[in-house]
Specification:
Helix content: 25-40%
Radius of gyration: 30 Å
Strand order of the largest sheet: 8-2-1-10-9-11
Protein name: 28S rRNA (uridine-N(3))-methyltransferase
Number of strands: 11
Family: Belongs to the class IV-like SAM-binding methyltransferase superfamily.
Subcellular location: Cytoplasm
Largest sheet: 6 strands, parallel
Main location: cytoplasm
Order of helices and strands: HEHEHHEEEEEHEHEEHEH
CATH architecture of the largest domain: 3-Layer(aba) Sandwich
Structural class: alpha/beta
Number of domains: 2
Region (Disordered): 1-21
CATH superfamily of the largest domain: SPOUT methyltransferase, trefoil knot domain
Length: 361
């Protein structure tokens, strides 16, 4: 009897060992599968964290034009639409700064986009209205309620075409950089402020900032209840990521102020200034030198001559061509006696675009 029962015990023990080995193999396969999934997840995470952006762009392009171009519009709606055409023309060619100057040089030092606009007729301050509409269009849609309360200048904003710039994000867009507004919300000690970046979750930044200011945020990490982000300078998407990030608007009291008061601290001036006129040199002979900050100046209904004559700082004695590094005719043999400013921007930027893109400062 001992023989058969011994065999049975051995078989039972063998089955137990095999079963245990089978379980261990299953566990090993499960662990291996988890490790593979973890590696795939980490690779995907690395890809998300890697900048999928192009090389940064260090140079800037600025455009200056008189606000008086709005006075040529026949109705308040057309004034607004004309401002929208200017904005669209500038963003298509990645203009970083739009300077609205007073060609009559009569606005004084109080010019700003703060306060109420004095009217939409010929007597209104066209410079401030143009600047305000340009600012409104540049601002991402989800931030406009925070920065643009109801205003007479914007009463016909419904006729404006959207700019659809890279920083005008949708809620679901997965992007490395976003524009946001600091919200007034309690924060824990040692933590940063919360920012509304137009996402489903609020973004918590690395610094404590005053509420209701606009900031550029670099998205870091997705948490369960919020998103971690880092405040970066507004030029970072352009200089580090190669993204076009909209334009700044500057009001200038005169033509000379538009040229001289350069806001870029690295050089303190525009490397190249280009004036445009049908009296200028043919653009075919022009070769763009290397630059860090380019300024292209356009005239209004009466050309750049009107801004020169009214500018006390220039005295009206200087020859217009000497005011710029280059004085160009970007549309020779034109078929119309006049080229409107919104048309001149498109013509000039199209003509110079390839040379601007090839610039390597």
């Amino acid at each position: 009897m001992n023989g058969p029962s011994k065999n049975k015990s051995e078989e039972k023990l063998k089955r137990k060992v095999e079963k245990k080995l089978h379980k261990e193999k299953r566990k090993i396969r499960k662990l291996e599968k988890q490790m593979i999934l973890k590696k795939d997840f980490e690779k995907k995470k690395e890809k998300l964290e890697e900048p999928v952006l192009g090389d940064g762009r260090s140079y800037t392009v600025s455009v200056a034009l008189p606000g008086s171009i709005l006075d040529n519009a026949q109705s308040p709606e057309l004034r607004t639409y004309l401002a929208g055409q200017i904005a669209r023309a500038c963003v298509v060619f990645q203009v970083d700064e739009i300077i609205v100057f007073d060609e009559s040089a009569s606005s004084g030092k109080d010019s700003s986009t703060q306060g109420d606009f004095t009217g939409v007729g010929k007597k209104g301050n066209c410079n401030i209205q143009l600047a305000r509409i340009l600012q409104y269009l540049e601002c991402p849609q989800y931030l406009r309620k925070s920065f643009f309360p109801k205003h007479k200048d914007l009463q016909y904003a419904g006729v404006l075409n959207p700019l659809d710039c890279p920083h005008h994000m949708r809620e679901q867009d997965n992007a490395e950089f976003r524009e946001g507004v600091v919200v007034d919300r309690p924060i824990k000690p040692g933590k940063g402020s919360f920012v509304d970046c137009g996402t489903l979750k609020t973004v918590q930044i690395d610094k404590v900032l005053q509420p209701n200011i606009r900031v550029t945020v670099k998205i870091k990490e997705q948490k369960k209840k919020y998103i971690l982000g880092e405040v970066v300078p507004p030029h970072y998407p352009r200089t580090k990521g190669g993204l076009y990030w909209g334009y700044n608007v500057r009001l200038a009291n005169s033509l000379s102020s538009a040229i001289v008061d350069c806001p870029y601290s690295d050089t303190g001036k525009y490397d190249i200034t280009i004036g445009t006129s049908d009296k200028g040199e043919p653009v075919a002979d022009f070769k763009m030198p290397t630059f860090k900050h380019l300024l292209i100046v356009f005239g209004g209904l009466q050309g750049l001559e009107a801004g020169l004559e009214a500018d006390e700082a220039l005295g009206g004695d200087i020859e217009l061509s000497l005011l710029f590094d280059k004085y160009l005719n970007t549309c020779p043999n034109q078929g119309s006696r006049t080229i409107r400013t919104e048309e001149a921007i498109l013509v000039t930027m199209s003509t110079l675009w390839s040379q601007i893109l090839s610039n390597q400062p």
